[in-house]
Amino acid sequence: MQKLSNIRFQTKLFVVFILLSSIPALLIGTMAYRKSSMMLQARNEQDLNVILAQLNTSIERQVRDFDRFTMIPYYLPDIFSFLNKPYLAKEQWGTAEIHAQRTMARLMGAYPSINSSIKGLMIYGMNGTVNGYRISGNTVINPKEKVIDEDWYQQALAERGGFVITGVREINQFKDGAFPALIGSRLLMDEEYQPLAVMAIFISPDFIPKFVETLELPTVKVTVLDQNRNIVYASDPALAARQLSIGANEQRGRWEADVSADQGQERYSGVFLESGYLKWKVYLGVNREELLAGSRSISYFTFLVAVGAVICSAAISWLLAKRLSRPINRLIRSMREVEQGNFKAPAPVGEDNEMRRLESSYHRMVSRLDKLVHSIEEKERQKRNAELYALRARIQPHFLYNTLNSIRMLAILQHSSHIAKLLQSLAKLLQANMKLDSELVLLDEEIRLLKDYAALMDLRYTGVFRVHWVIPHECLQVPIPPMLLQPLLENAIFHGAKGLDRTLRISITARQDAESGTLFIEIADDGTGFTGKEILLQEESADHIGLRNVHERILLRFGEPYGLSLIRTDDLTKAIVKIPLKLEASETGGDRDVESVGR
Q1: How far apart are CA 488 and CA 568, in angstroms?
Q2: What is the location of CATH 3.30.565.10 in the chain?
Q3: pTM over 0.85
Q4: Is residue 42 predicted with pLDDT exceeding 70?
């Protein structure tokens, strides 16, 4: 049995040596892969942002050209004269009407030559005239198509001469054959700013893929959404469908999306930008698998190096494991005896080497172990007190800095007599702060201190907040740790009032639960909240230091289940303190540290 145990131990050492020789190579390869991946993604994102800005500028420049094209009728007075007159049937037209109609026909026929993306246009006169032109197909106007109720027509009227552009629509203004196009419209007005007509040009969205082709980036996926998040152009329709829900309320940023493909899920990532002129969003992205293909070659090479290192070190590892297993087994047997309570370790044997020195050190350690066991309880008690004082010390400098800074700001900016009142409140707070070494104080004294602090903060932030106090008389005589509630009120004022355009309402309440023997103190505010329903103060992080200090002071003083909880409910941020109602005399510490400001 002992021999079998030795073989197992040798095998374990052999495996450990192999791992020690191969893990560094694997770690280096993994770190190199991660670093190269991060660099590739960062560089790709920078390049995409540059391309995105160029593409967005090109689209805006083209649409601005369409905007200027709709201003051409203002330079043709004959058209305005024709639109200003009451509608006449064709058989009633005179020379002026015929001349104006010919001018309008030449104008309409010239638009496609100005820009090949213009496929047609319509002019809807307020006098009832309807004129239109289409570059290809049937040019006869469809009399059944009523545009007066369409959103782009109403928006053109509302803009009072401003240019309006839509996403891709189905154009049915002509008989026999609808076609997709963007609609750019403008309300034409006379010299007295009275509406004359609504002009609409029908723009083929093919100018966008032309811009995309000039990028010469076949692997980059491009999606353009209009202001209503309808697809104007998409190089990958499946990816564009996933992007409809990305960045709806953001002007620019990063995005990631998974798209189903024949070989499984494909992940794309990229950037997007909203046009300040059009309110369109342009999305650019690439396939992450293709982007990181070069980086993966590093990981494959590292894997091959690791395999070679494992094979080369196998023989050396076996020899080392066999030599080290014997003295280690002897040491293990001795440790098992110590586990049973026998603190008499055997004297080291064998030649003078590293293992003998290890056994000697182990022998001395066991000799001291018995002495150390007896001192653990005393050290734990001292550690508990040290942690309490350390937590208190972390609160004091933060509080003093904010208060003194408030005095300095008030003295410089106001030169006000309020400074005297501010100094008086500060004196009370400093006097209470010096009593942090006291074990416990009555809630009545803590509430008076809290009211002084609230008055101090009200001088600094006049009208920013209002405090409502609901403290029953029976709760005032409950002892609590000193300066426990001040960080909670400070947190409510500083964080709750951020971004508010109204007065922050804070309520401070207390209640007793006789059944559980618990005092509940709640500080609630209706200000800016936090994400989620609850903040876990048990987690270690750089945030919420002051709140964690309060929670840890309560835990160290009273233990579970008491402490501090921070929740978000009914549009209120609530800090709830739980402490026991009744304490032993040894816990309250008598009256040795009880003081009162002004007594």
Answers
A1: 15
A2: 460-580
A3: no
A4: yes
